Amino acid sequence: MSAETTVNIPERAHQTGIISLEQLRECWDELASSRPAPEDVLRLLQRKGYLTPYQIDRIQKGEKTGFFYGSAKILYKIASGGFARVYRGVNTQTGESVAVKVLRQRWASDKVCLEAFYHEGRVGQMLRHPNIVRIDEVAGHDSTHYITMEFVEGGSLKNLLEIRGGRIARDEAIRLMIDALGGFAYAWDQGVAHRDMKVTNLLASTQGTVKLADFGLASVHKDERKAEEAHGQRTVEYALLERSTGVEKGDRRSDIFFLGAVFYQMVTGNPPIAEKKDRISRMLRSRIDNIRPVREAYPLADAPLAAVIDRMMALEVKQRYQTPQEVIDALRLLTASAARTPDGRAAAADAAPADERKPAAPRGATRSVLFVEADTGLQDAVREKLHAIGYRVLITTDPQRAIERYREQLPNCVFVDCETTGKRGFEAFLEMAKVAETHRHPWAGVLMLTAEQSGWGEELTQSDNTVVLVKPVTLRQVREHLVRMAPVGA
Fold first, then answer.
1. Nearest Cα to 212, choosing from 90, 305, 128?
2. Global model pTM greater than 0.85
3. What is the 8-class DSSP label of residue 50?
4. For the chain, what is the mean pLDDT?
């Protein structure tokens, strides 16, 4: 980055509205005593979370648009596909994190794709349920079209499976599926079929809740509209199933089958239908005729649970569960019976096979970490690294909000970066330790300070459960302290 570009970035950021004049002045004033160079101001803007690397890169390239969509300010890109890009943003009016799905400009003149995009938004807006991703705004003009929705902190069920080594323990798999079925049952009652049930469209939040996402192919009251014309490649498996089983296109029981396929993968560790790339191979009936029963694919699977999944995926439609509520009832009956021993006493352990419990860790043993960090770039790195080793990661930039989240969820470990959160972060660290003591909750906390802040650490009594680190601090150190203080599966 050239010196000229570095000098201009803070000013350009203010001109585009990404940062306020007050934020810019705040950084200049904070550095005034050290005679700062413009690049020092830029670094401080990043450290405080006022500017992200993504925003800086766009400004450096001379971009003047794409920083705001409606009331959402874009922070960074989450995903990119052939049809649309998805960004993480913040609602400038409420401060709430949001996700923004933006249609690629090359599809803006395609009436079929444009109608499919707005169809997804309209369907999402009519569905309001805790287990369905909330759609807030559907808007656009000229070649710009976007959907603003709830941001789910966490990842897809596919990400969760990767973290857990490919398989999820019996009790947690049932709980996650009941969540998904709850959202599905609500959509079902509204006359909506999802038409794209798969592990990437089930989002697992860090709070352990599953939400259905992407109703882009949804049919409303069996009216397929034109969504499938825009995304025909994504509906091949549905077409294969319905053609092979002799049901009408858009039969909502097809969603039960494919949600069963997701359940199958959670329990066995493998998808039931072999992946194929070309359309002709994907339309071969042998792909569904050759699906192995759950217990054949994974002999250690719980037999009653396997029976539920096999029935969800019955090729004879009349033998399949006819509504999502029927599946929910079956799973609740399953969990109620598994919670008792034959003589009526409460069961002492998870009913899953021992070798399944260890790598997956039941819900109560899953470890969560609260990270109080205002550097959005560092947030991404922390989230990725800690998710990869099996932790639920809660991140907030606001120390006061951190205290509230600690009270709500009592995470297993807390990290506070005082370089970006200042004295308020230090005070929040002390307050969370008091909350833990009040609730008699095991405390584990790591306080990260700059050399100038190191005196704050003298107010703390360091122990195995309270650690003070003076920067620079590496992600490896963060991981090592977390694994020692709150090991996964403990």
1. 128
2. no
3. S
4. 84
